[in-house]
Amino acid sequence: MRILTLLEAFKKNKTYQMSFDKIILFDFYMKFPQTMIRDNNDISKFDFEELYSFFHAHPDRDNYHRILNFILSKKLIAKDILNSSFVYKITDLGVEVVDNIKNP
To answer: pTM, whole model, 2 decimals?
Structure first.
């Protein structure tokens, strides 16, 4: 759901192409927001997974490939080649799924 929401949010921005690495990066922001957006340096507000995550240096790329291949197979996203790299775009069916869930 995070990946669909992410791709839907960037759908209108035609100049910003969502490559595999950008999806991983922005998903990290969505998964661990306290790491990236700090109001203060109070470590007690971090949850254990976020504070001690190895995701920073070693994201699970295989899992991301599995997730992307799954939502590609359901035709919720499309994979195109642009400027010698793969980019991912949400399809109309994917937008419909995100809208039906009413994800804030």
So the answer is: 0.75
